[in-house]
Structure formats: structure tokens, C-alpha cells
């Protein structure tokens, strides 16, 4: 199973990066820019074939891919030719730069649409983080209050097999009618009155929609002064896009919803970090390859009939995340390169080529350092 999870993880990341690079490639080709190489994976090269002036290569490390165009290094753009990227009009260069972002948005929208259509245009639950009164701009949101956010060690819930991210939809005694559970107070009232009795809980997994029945026996908690099973409860949202005008573009609407929600959460984490003068809170808002692998492995291990849909849901979310990350106006990212093009358009002159090249090199070094730190954090944090 770990090998399968690793292969699927590599496949997901490779597809996302290749889709992004395909956007750059197609617009560059259409604009008459000389594409020197379109490669899958990270060099060194193990295979390459030149077709129509472009080398199509397969490289040793199977993570993502790249596009190399003539004149992309402004500090040494080479000769002024018709296919040189550095000498193309600013609007052409900007189109090439944002094409990868556009492709990630389109790909993520299509995946979200397929997932939503299979679920009658109702999303999988999204965990509430921070502001429980957050309002999504698109779709109809419904709140789920009985999501498990914590399972106490040595508790009846831990022994029974409750897990983070499950949510309780019903509970009942053996050989009795089941009580529907829709709120925290419902659950507390029911469990609090059934100390020492075996209760069958109907539990649904947020990621896979897998429903199972778990039996647990509440015991009296002195601190709470009532019977409990030892779980912390939080809330989540589902989003539905059932209006006639929403359905055809539901994938895009959902992608915008989750991206804006992620930005809102990140903003709260940054504010918390500033107020506490600590990078701890904001670092929790990021996951690197190791953290993403943990999520993929968790979905595969959970099993169920909707594993494929859940993996598509995760891939769509990552595609929008990649688009958002790349549009940030930071050196080395597409958004940072767009800033230099906008400078040229506004001031009618090019930025200093050496300064631009150095800024991108510095930005890349900072991004690699951040990736290393995030990966280090993920390795020493349980999946």
C-alpha cells in the first residue's frame, strides 16, 4: 500500500506540474517563440528526441517537468531573432507567463466539476478553521457541527476506533431506535445519559464518504460531570451548487470558494503569528510534498467506494493552490516575472536585466529554503 500511495502521489504532482508547463509550452509555440526543450521530470536527461526544433525529453527524477525557451534568461538573452522570448512584445511575454496558471485553473475546475456532478453538486465537507461565520461567495453552504477534531488517548472513543475528520451522524443503543445527531448539544445530551451502556455510532469519513458503525461505551468524566466518550468536536461546511446557472460552472465556483477560504485561513494564521511573534502558527498553514503524501496515503488506506473521487478532489484543490501560489508577485514565480513585464509596460523601458536575473535567483533560493523547512516540519509531524 505505501508503494501504491507513493506512485499515485508522484503521478498527481507530475500531472499538475506538466499541465502548468503545457500552458507555457502551447502559448509559446502559438506566439512563435522558439521552445528549445519540453521535458518530463528533473534532469539529468535519460531520453530526448528533437521534433520541429524542440527537444522532447524524459528525465531521471519523475517529479513534474519544465519548458525551456530561447531568451528566457534576460541577463544573457542571445541574438535578437524572431523566436527569442526576450525580444517579444510585453503582452506576448505576459500571456506566456500566465498561461501555466490559466491551465491549472482550467484543469482544477474540470476535476471539481466531475467530483461535484457525481455527488449531485454537493461538495465534500470542508473543515472549519478559525472564523465559523465565514461566508462563501458562491453556492449554498450547510454547516455540520459534529466533526471529530480530537480523540483523547485512553478514551472509549480511542479504543473504539474513532478518528480525526470523521463526523457522527447518528447514535443508538443496541436493539433500539437510532437517534439522529445534528449538533454538538444533541450528541452531548444523548451520550451523557447513556453512561456504561454500549452505543452504536454511525460515523462518516469526511474524505471518502465511507459510513461505518462503531460501538463505544461512555464513561463518567469528573471534569465534565457527565458521561462522555472522549472526543473533541468541531464543525465543517458543505457547499451545494444546484442552481441552473451554477451547475455548468460549479467546478470553477468551487475552486474560487476553496481558494478564497484558504487565503482567509492563511491571513488569520499570519495575524496570529504577528501577535505572538512566532512563526509557529503560520507554518502550520503550509504543507510540502511530505504532508501531501500523507494526505494521499491516508485516503488510500481508508479505502471505500469513493477513493478515486476523493483523490480527484485533492488533485483539483492542489491545482488551484498551484495557480494561486504561482500568481503571487514574488521573484522566481510567474507572478514575479509578470511584475517586471508590467514595469516595462508602465515605464516604457525594461528593468535592468542583471537586476531581474539576480532577483529571480534570490527568490528561487528563498523558495527552496522554505520548501526544505516545510518538508522538515512535515517529516517530524505525524500524518
TrEMBL record:
Residues 9-370 form the Peptidase M50 domain. One of its GO terms (cellular component) is membrane. It is found in: Membrane. The chain crosses the membrane at residues 91-117, 307-328, 358-376. The keyword Zinc applies. Keywords: Hydrolase, Membrane, Metalloprotease, Protease, Transmembrane, Transmembrane helix, Zinc. One of its GO terms (biological process) is proteolysis. It is a multi-pass membrane protein. CDD domains: S2P-M50_PDZ_RseP-like. It comes from the Bacteria. InterPro entries: PDZ_sf (IPR036034), Pept_M50_Zn (IPR004387), Peptidase_M50 (IPR008915). Its cofactor is Zn(2+). GO terms for molecular function: metalloendopeptidase activity. Belongs to the peptidase M50B family. This is Peptidase M50 domain-containing protein. It comes from candidate division WWE3 bacterium CG08_land_8_20_14_0_20_40_13.
